[in-house]
Amino acid sequence: MVQRLPFLFILLISTAIAAQTDSLPAIGQRIADARLQLLVSLQANDLSESALWRDSLLRFGDTDHAGLVWDEQWLLYFWEETYGNLFDEVVRFDETERQRLADKVQPPKDHLFEWLDSAVYDRRFELYENIGRGFLTEEEKQFALIELDYLLRLNQQEQASGEWKNRLEAFLKRYPESRFQNYIRSNLYNESVTGKSYQSDPNRGFTIDLLFASGRWRNNLETTMGSPYGFDLGISYWQRRWSLGLRCTFGWEKLSRPVFQDGFEWPKDDPTVLIIPSLEIGYDILNNQKIRLFPAIGAGISILKPPGTTEETDNPPPDYYSNFFYAKGCWGGSLNADIKLKNFDVYDTKNAPDNSNLCIRLRVGYNRLFWGKENLALQGDMFFFAVGVNIFGHVLR
Asked: Which of 42, 156, 170, 314 is deepest in the core (most CB within 10 A)?
């Protein structure tokens, strides 16, 4: 019996390989037969029967074989008016998914696509009316009309005149948070856009701003120092309304009265340097083609010092000036408004959607300071106002 085991093992492996080899053409044949039955059911207008064969083809499709091509499947959804299935698949349909489907063994040549294309085209006015009266949101209705024209290639004449691009951009402007926006930007613009090496991701971007800032002190600081003036520089990463950024405020002012520390004097009218690096997080409460409005909170370090206490200069200050170096943690909040002046394309592609903008940024806020823990004359907080230029650009993929 032991001597027969190797023989039985080899026999089992050979049988499995043979069975697998025989199954390969069987899968293709089963798909071909099911597609024929689906076509017969469609021609007979038997929706229940066609739905069964459609589901069978989706089950027959595996990691290597496709039972239906994606545009056949979506035309079939329009024929059946099952828009929920269409919307679910569109949301997941990106370049990776499109390539994955293209890498499969495609269905055998038959007349299924031609029949669906012709039948849906002939019914297009009926479908337009049914979509308008259907139990769909206004956003879903508008997208369904756009997608139907795209599948039937009715957009080609509109592309030549530019009307197709205007139609897509009108939809994206009306529904800036639409779940269909990624699909529209990646697939529905003409080939000169979707075939680019670089495309913008509408959900991610970077901003950089340079602002002129002015502040107003509260409590003891109001009588100790004059109002600060300077610059506010920031860079941030933006994703789906949220922004995370680094900011640094630079300010200069003069002492309105002397400050005493450890028996030394920082005399009146001496200049001061203010530096506040911080980490900030914000959330868009409004963002459209004209304006972006977002509150933000942040925390960092507030530094107040005489100029030259850490730099090498020709006329160095007295050694005791190092006693007047104050560095404490701080936190604050702000309300920011971007007034968009110009939308533009990074690669200046004729039919690309607007992917960047130049704007005026207005920023008002409050900083909670803690220098008073080291010197009572420096106890207080600061309100500030800043205005300047901000540039926003979508991430390229």
From this structure: 42
